Amino acid sequence: MARGDAFVTLVYFSSIGTVDVQPASGVEIMITFIAGDGTGIRIRAKKSDGTTTSDLYFGRTGGETSDSASNDIAYLGIRVPKIFITNSVFIQLYSSAPAKYVFISGMQTK
Questions:
Q1: Is 108 helix (H, G, I), strand (E, B) or coil?
Q2: Which pLDDT belongs to residue 17?
Q3: What DSSP string runs through 6-69?
Q4: 30/106 Cα distance (integer angstroms)
Q5: In the chain, where the domains are located
Q6: Which of 6, 31, 42, 97 has the lowest tally of Cβ within 10 angstroms?
Q7: Which CATH architecture does the domain made up of 6-108 adopt?
Q8: What is d(CA 16, CA 13) in angstroms, rounded to the nearest whole number?
Q9: Could you list the pLDDT tens digit for every one of the 110 residues in the chain?
């Protein structure tokens, strides 16, 4: 891959568990869209030293009236996340149910 190339991946969870989305050393990716196959899929921030955050939370969408946030990517709605990941700081996907898909697209920035 080179700078400006599309980054597109489809992650399948055959069982409950986690998958790291981590670029190769020296590569940086800007994720511009992420969608899950229904509810039960979450994102965590992760560092190469193995440190993982708890689930990341997303704020309100246009139709919501409360300040309660959700940690389920199904609630991203029409919001477009811009998440920059590198080999040392990247994301981990977690699925609490089997047979789930996650689609991620973005662009290589370095």
A1: strand
A2: 92
A3: EEEEEEEESSSEEEEE-PPTT--EEEEEEEESSSSEEEEEEETTS-EEEE--B---TT--S---
A4: 5
A5: 6-108
A6: 6
A7: Sandwich (2.60)
A8: 7
A9: 789 999 999 999 999 999 999 999 999 999 998 888 878 888 888 888 888 887 777 665 566 655 555 677 776 665 667 889 999 999 999 998 899 999 999 999 99
Burial class (CB in 10 A: 0-12, 13-18, 19+), 80: exposed
Measured from the Cβ of residue 13, the count of other Cβ atoms closer than 10 Å reads 22
C-alpha of 27 from chain center: 17
pTM for the full predicted model: 0.79
Q: Which amino acid is at 63?
A: G
71, HSE (Cβ side, Cα atoms, 13 Å): 12
Q: And the tokens for 69?
A: 């946030």
Structure tokens at 47: 């560092």
